[in-house]
Amino acid sequence: MAEVLSIDGPERVSLISEPMPMAAPGGFLVETVYSGVSAGTELTYVKGTNPYLNTSWDPALGLFGTGGPVMAYPVRGIGYMQVGMVVDSRTDAVAAGRIVAMAYGHRTAYAADPLRDRFVELPRDLDPLLGIYAAHMGPICANGLLHAAHDLLGPGVRDLLDGVRGRRVVVVGAGVVGLLVAAFAAGAGAGTEVVVVDETPARLCVAAALGVETLPAEDAFQLKRRWRHGPNDHGADVVFQCRGQERALALALKLLRPQGSAIDLAFYTGGAGLVRLGEEFHHNGLSLRCAQIGRVPRGMAHAWDRDRLSRETVELLHRIGPWLREHVITDVVRFGKAPELLRDLAARRRQALQAVLCRDVQDERG
Known about the structure:
Elements: E1 2-9, E2 12-18, E3 28-37, H1 41-47, E4 57-58, E5 63-64, E6 75-76, E7 82-89, E8 99-102, E9 109-112, E10 120-121, H2 137-153, E11 168-172, H3 176-186, E12 193-198, H4 201-210, E13 213-216, H5 222-226, E14 228-230, E15 233-234, E16 236-241, H6 246-254, E17 256-264, H7 280-283, E18 287-290, H8 306-328, E19 329-334, H9 338-346, E20 354-358
Parallel strand pairs: 11-12, 11-16, 12-13, 16-17, 17-18, 19-20
Antiparallel strand pairs: 1-2, 1-6, 3-7, 3-9, 3-20, 4-5, 7-8, 8-10, 14-15
């Protein structure tokens, strides 16, 4: 039998058993080694705040609120940071014994179709635990960098770091998304300044261990005085907004120089009353770009597909792997403890920067 995580209602999480899947002709079977937990999107289902649970979504019109809810409990198959071992392959696309990164939800086994399911075969010299970022989370962050590059250069982007190299950059939020974005940006070199801003001292310490400058949110306005470009032109060239709080978005806009851009990677499940569009946004002529993984910048899909973003991610993982293991991946727990873990994270009874589910008891920590 295989185990699947089931969110049965607000604050109700369980594991259910299903018959073990089998590899179909042309497919392959993976058994999960690691499964990373998203403290953002996934917990909205545990809390009951995800908009899919409360309203409709019309993909043709791109509108919410034109009918009944898209989803109902129980919700299964969430999760997008899986690493699995191929235990049975009936395809030439991947051999048995290889480790792959995928996004198939929190389950202990999955039957994949290489024509339908995207997978990233991990290099043999990469720690499999780091593979939780290769298929989806890392590309989310790389796509934020790509949006910044497109904002500056349009379709002439040649390098992921074109939008930050030699510029003054702020990353608001030192969760996993913010830290990976900062790690990407810190590699730009050539005069690039990267500052991570957050409200939590412990998270700022993690960012500092990466080697970037950090500032508490209440002190961030000093950057407006420090970064002078000319008369009446102060602030960051680009801000990556990586925290799903309205006050974080409000701060991001305040830190920008006139005509600067905020690249928004956050997910907001409520309103945004603190975002005063009649103030800095209006008077400084700012831009706000939503950079979600569902699309790359317009006109760039042919050159920057998801596989290329994954390759950029794997290169980053090779560079910062020890830092990720020591500072970012804080909790590794057995799959059987997943319901308790998600309930505790949603209720804030437990704090974890990056929690990971594992199959082997010897991996447990945190």
